[in-house]
Request: fold
Amino acid sequence: MPRHASPAAPRHSARPGRRARLVSTLAIAATLVAPAIAHTPPARAAQAPAVVAGNPYERGPAPTVASIEADLGPFATATTTVSRGNATGFGGGTVHYPTTTSAGTFGAVAISPGYFGTQSSIAWYGNRVASQGFVVITIDTLSIFDEPDSRGTQLLAALDYLTQRSSVRRRIDAGRLGVMGHSMGGGGSLAAATTRPALQAAIPLTPYHDNANWSPVRVPTLVIGAENDTTAPVGSYAEPFYTSLPATLDKAYLELDNAGHAAPISSNVTIAKYSISWLKRFIDNDTRYEQFLCPAPSGPAIQEYRDTCPHS
Reply:
């Protein structure tokens, strides 16, 4: 399919700094912003939508701009805690899931924080994504200092926990799984997609990884960068990551206008809107969400958007 792109102002790619400086900056960024975003929105009481005829994986009513921008979707949700002691291969976390048992099984998503971060920094994704019809686990990593590849391995371990050992495993379709992550967790989501090509979606958020070549990835990938990211500048990380993905892959690059590295760890309508659309389109194979991804979206919150448009 042809690629569509919205115009973007010319930029000069920032040079990567020394690794020690980068790690220090990541730690400072996480420390400054994490306390402000520890609250997860409460579950919403709602009537559970029925399974949609036609595509057996569609969940919920036909989407609108309002429905994908809303704080919570049509499914009532609940949460359960995974202690570090009960987790294998990751540091524990929180599972958010639709309460209905009459709408069929759901796809599942694991989400990793970035360097020096805990699951509190990604908590806002939990109910927001789950209420759209997914089982979501926001994880703590084994160590707040874990490198991206380790975070990728832990994301996969969390998915394995969800589908094999969790109390909600019977609610999950183990063939429809995805990963997300912030910063080093975003690099981890790319690593996880490389390791496990059977995944259905990956969303790295202002990602960092030493590796800039992701040509082996075969998982539909939405890379989200931030225009004013000085920790992992888009010219050195998010943009080259996107460009290195195969041209034949379902992929997109969304750059947040006038935003910094920490943008994904605070509630953000633009991130939620397009992440939900991506997960619905590729985990649920729900083509009703293509309208939000192609032609290329634009608006005051988007500095740049590139994509290959979903391959039907």
About this structure: Helices lie at 19-33, 65-69, 125-130, 148-164, 184-195, 238-244, 269-283. The chain has one domain: 17-41+74-307.
